[in-house]
Amino acid sequence: MEERNNPTVSFCFTIVIPVYNEEENIYALEEKLKAYLSHAALSTAVLFVNDGSKDNSLQRIREICLRNDSFYYLNLTRNGGLSAALKAGIDHVCSEYVGYMDADMQTDPEDFDLLLQEIPHYEIVTGIRANRKDSFFKKLQSKIANSYRRMMTGDGVSDTGCPLKVMHSDAAKRIPLFNGMHRFLPALILLQNGRVKQVPVRHYPRNAGTSKYHLWNRLSGPFIDCFAYRWMKKRAINYQINEHNLG
């Protein structure tokens, strides 16, 4: 896709929202996003990425994109998982900044303005879920996974599972694609010698739809992926061009 033909080039900020079987949340999400875009700190577009949903999510995404000028979508041919959907969205954004949030309505797009205040000075600004509204067991699982990941990566991030994030698009596009990538966004930005900032954001209970995570994929995946990150960290390549004649 050529940049000049990509409508997100006209915006400063694009919010990528991966969607998998979230039909019950699409219309409520539309209202939340419309309200935010009307007074967002930067000119903002929304890019939904339908990750092979088996319910009516795609039909509803098409519907809301038809009636909202700043809403766009990608439809993946099959379900590839959250990391694949997120990377597809990042790769198709041409705005200066790219954000990420889930479609489950547990975070508020209004809080993007808190992150955007800091983004000129950091390559990634990530939310920390304050007063998290999840069950004790779910919070315990996340605490164990976050502690282990932080020990293995040294990224210093207390809540990498918070889906509210803003990145410089050029840094986000350099992030390598692998399953589980979404859990390591700050750590992967650090591999580029980037800077990371954490900002408290609001969190809400899930009122519709079904969580896609459980004990096995919340703990086993990060455990294995941490070793993959350690391998990449030792072999990471960073370079800068100081001159060229390519135009």
Strand content: 15-25%
How many strands, what sense, and barrel or not for the largest sheet?
A: 7 strands, mixed
CATH class: Alpha Beta
**Unreliable residue stretches:** none
Span of the ends, CA to CA? 20 Å
Supply the helix-strand structural class: alpha/beta
Shape: globular
CATH topology: Spore Coat Polysaccharide Biosynthesis Protein SpsA, Chain A
Q: In total, how many beta strands?
A: 7
User: Average pLDDT value?
Assistant: 86
CATH superfamily, by name, is Spore Coat Polysaccharide Biosynthesis Protein SpsA, Chain A
Can you walk through the features of this model?
- By secondary structure, the protein is an alpha/beta fold.
- It has one domain (3-134, 161-210): Spore Coat Polysaccharide Biosynthesis Protein SpsA, Chain A.
- 36% of the residues lie in helices and 16% in strands.
- It contains eight helices and seven strands.
- It has helices spanning 23-37, 57-66, 82-91, 112-116, 136-153, 169-173, 185-190, 215-235, and strands at 13-19, 44-50, 71-75, 97-100, 124-129, 165-168, 196-201.
- A seven-stranded mixed beta sheet has the order 3-2-1-4-6-5-7, with helices on both faces.
- Helix 1 runs parallel beside helix 2 (57-66) and helix 5 packs parallel to helix 8.
- The longest helix is centred in the C-terminal third of the chain and has 21 residues, at 215-235.
Structural key phrases:
alpha/beta; 8 helices; 247 residues; globular; single chain; seven-stranded mixed sheet; Spore Coat Polysaccharide Biosynthesis Protein SpsA, Chain A
